[in-house]
Amino acid sequence: MSDNGVIFSTEALNLWYGKNQALKNINVNIKMQKVTAIIGPSGCGKSTFLKVLNRMVDLVPNVKYTGSVNLQGHNIFDENINLVNLRTRVGMVFQKPNPFPKSIFENVAFGPRIHGKHKKSELNELVEKSLRQAALWDEVKDRLNEPGLSLSGGQQQRLCIARTLANEPEVILMDEPTSALDPAATSRIEDLVRSLRKHYNIIIVTHNMQQAGRVSDETFFFLNGELIETDRTEVIFTNPKDNRTEEYITGRFG
Amino acid sequence: MTEMERNLRNKKIAEKVYFSMCGLFMILTIAVLFWILYDVASKGYSTINWTFLTDRPREQMTAGGIWPAIVGTFYVASLTIIISVPVGITSAIYLNEYASKGTLVRVIRLSIRNLSGVPSIVYGLFGLGLFAATLGLGTSLISAALTLSIMSLPWVITASEEALKAVPQSFREGGLALGATKWQMIRQLVLPNAISGMATGSILALARATGETAPIILTGAAFFLPALPTSLSDRFMAMPYHLYILATQHMSPAQVRPIAYATALVLIAMVMGLNMVAIIWRYQIRKKQTW
Ligand SMILES: Nc1ncnc2c1ncn2[C@@H]1O[C@H](COP(=O)(O)OP(=O)(O)OP(=O)(O)O)[C@@H](O)[C@H]1O
Ligand SMILES: [Mg+2]
Fold first, then answer.
1. Burial class (CB in 10 A: 0-12, 13-18, 19+), B93
2. Inter-residue contact A156 to A149 (CB < 8 Å)
3. What residue segments make up the domains of chain A, in order of their start?
4. Of A217, A245, B56, B147, which is least packed with CB atoms within 10 Å of its CB?
5. A111 vs B224, more confident
6. Homologous superfamily in CATH for domain A6-249
7. Secondary structure class of B277 (helix, strand, coil)
């Protein structure tokens, strides 16, 4: 099942926060080795959908979900699924950069360390590799012991990406990773996303149509908890089938 | 002058009056505080010397020093911290990090807050009944320390919970999203950033407990006991109680007044010292914190 080009597939996924249904019967396949953008108006369930994929949504009190979400053929709603393992395979970058109050090095080494890698040489290598992949190495290589929080917002976000990469995940979830950044920092993150797409499956939530157009291969359009349309990004943006998608894309609402 | 201008002017005057009142009361409070300190210091200062700090009371407490009371207070305070801090911090971690945020936890939290308002004499009675009588520990150092611990727990728990709440949620989420277990997350991301707040809160709680008299009178403090306690089941002298005796129970209060003031001064110095440590510590941590 893992070689049909699908990384995640959801079946009849429904989710409620208390009595409020945030996801309604989502059936979708997320393709491998692609950047998938999730767009839709505020409150339509984009973040919720993303947080289901690494079960971070479990942290919300009173959350309830049904259906199934398969990661490479294994249902992540299974009661004996190992959440530590799932979240190591499916990393997440948050909307607001959230480096830990530790050094740059320790931020990146956090994941490997908690997963039992303690050898200094191994950690050094992994930290450098991750920072390089996150296009941050040149800027920080001489100040690895300085606090991660001393970096600029854009650098902090790349540090968070590096921190996620250090776990060597299969999937990276990004929830509006550039919404707290200025245009220059945004474009660096976008370049980074494009460069990472060869090795990782990336799912990115964005409010910015141009961004979705620039970085993604596939686009999902959500509205009021429903998945309205999925297609290749250029199709969604040039020739959407559903007129609600078209209305959203052309800026008539949202 | 238009209606609006007049309104604005009136508001400004009201504001001025209000701020001056606040300032006045603040100055008044500080003045009273300093007056008390000055009074105690001026009357007690000349009695304090090396012998006073290291000798035991002599000649019906009219001479000698307060060494056994200092030691007793030190012992009971240390025991209190050893007992209440681990229990308090663990409870706070459980309440804040593990317990699901339901009605039960709210009720528990509310009860804890209310417990910190219970008069200390009530804790004394409780300690006398539970530790001294029911558990058979007698009136002793350990009974008194347990009683003070129970009394300090609400403060320690509340301060520790505040410290935990001050740690940004984004650290917790970031840790869990990297595949940390809940305990790894707490251990490595929450506690290091909360521990200083917990410690300073605990010191402040201890400072308050150190000055308490009622709970220890009922559970273990002795009127006069020149020998130092050698085991947990011994009774002990303590500064607040010693002060109380000198001030109200002594047969010639006028004669021992300087000793009473000197004792008060030592006690105040100890409590203020603890508070200062906590405040300076907290200040330095705040300065270092970048989030
Ligand atoms: N923790 C929560 N508790 C209760 N309801 C929530 C919670 N998080 C989200 N919701 C609700 O679920 C719905 C979907 O929210 P979600 O955050 O997934 O939207 P979104 O598409 O990410 O919006 P935005 O673009 O503003 O980030 C909304 O109606 C929201 O109010
Ligand atoms: Mg969102």
1. buried
2. yes
3. 6-249
4. A217
5. A111
6. P-loop containing nucleotide triphosphate hydrolases (3.40.50.300)
7. helix
**Contact criterion met (CB < 8 Å) for B178 and A61:** no
Angstrom distances, CA of residue A118 to CA of A89, A111, A124, A179, B192: 20, 11, 10, 35, 20
The pLDDT tens digits of the residues spanning B238-266 come to 999 999 988 888 888 888 888 899 999 99
Q: Provide CB contacts within 8 A for B119, sequence distance 6+.
A: B214
Q: Mean pLDDT for chain A? A: 93
> Would you list the domain boundaries of chain B?
3-47, 50-288
Average pLDDT over residues A24-45: 95
Tokens of B163: 């410290």
Give the chain A residue whose CA is nearest to the CA of B101. Answer: A61
What number of residues does chain A have? 254
Give the pLDDT band of residue A252 (cuts 50, 70, 90).
low
Nearest to A65 by CA among A38, A27, A92, A25: A25
The count of other CB atoms within 10 Å of the CB of residue A6 is 18
Pairing state of beta strands A90-93 and A171-175? parallel
What CA–CA distance (Å, rounded) separates A175 from B290?
Answer: 24
Report the alpha-carbon distance of residue B143 to residue B145 in Å, rounded. Answer: 5
- From ligand 1's centre to the CA of A41, what distance in Å? 11
Task: Give the residue from A98, A151, A156, A175 with the most B CB atoms within 10 Å of its CB, the best one to mutate.
Answer: A98
The question of ipTM being above 0.90 is answered as yes
pTM, entire model: 0.84
d(CA B99, CA B112): 15
The reply to whether B50 touches chain A by the CB within 8 Å rule is no
What architecture (CATH level 2) is domain B50-288?
Orthogonal Bundle (1.10)
Nearest to A107 by CA among A166, A154, A153: A166
H or E segment at A74? strand A74-75
Most confident of B53-62, B95-104, B162-171: B162-171
**CB distance A43 to ligand 1 below 6 Å:** yes
What's the mean per-residue pLDDT of chain B?
90
- On chain A, the residues whose CB falls within 8 A of the CB of B176 are 56, 59, 87
